[in-house]
Design goal:
5 strands; 31% strand; single chain; 98 residues; 39% helix; alpha+beta
Length: 98
């Protein structure tokens, strides 16, 4: 099992990009299942994400939004092996770019 953490900056991204009712639905129906999958399947982060500068980017088609990107890096503040922190979330509420 892999430790996966959302940085405060990622939570702020959600609040900045979505109205409160949609933000709550997004967290519950889109974000939570992805974070759980990343935590439960160690290989998923490396297999499904792509390098993006010093980080990795995971692209997901949403249920309550059109889609979103999660940007993450190794969590150096967590002593557990292979821990990651998601520090930025980019959300498209209506139309996801190709």
């Amino acid at each position: 099992m892999r430790a996966v953490r959302l940085a405060d900056s990622a939570l702020e991204d959600i609040e900045r990009q979505l109205p409160p009712d949609l933000a709550a639905d997004f967290k519950r129906h889109d974000l939570r299942p992805v974070l759980e999958a990343l935590s439960e399947h160690d290989e998923l982060w490396e297999d499904a994400s792509v390098p993006h500068g010093a980080a990795r980017r995971l692209t997901i088609y949403g249920r309550t939004v059109a889609g979103f990107h999660l940007f993450g890096v190794g969590d150096t503040g967590d002593p557990r092996e292979d821990a990651i922190v998601i520090y930025f979330i980019d959300i498209w509420s209506d139309e996801f770019p190709e």
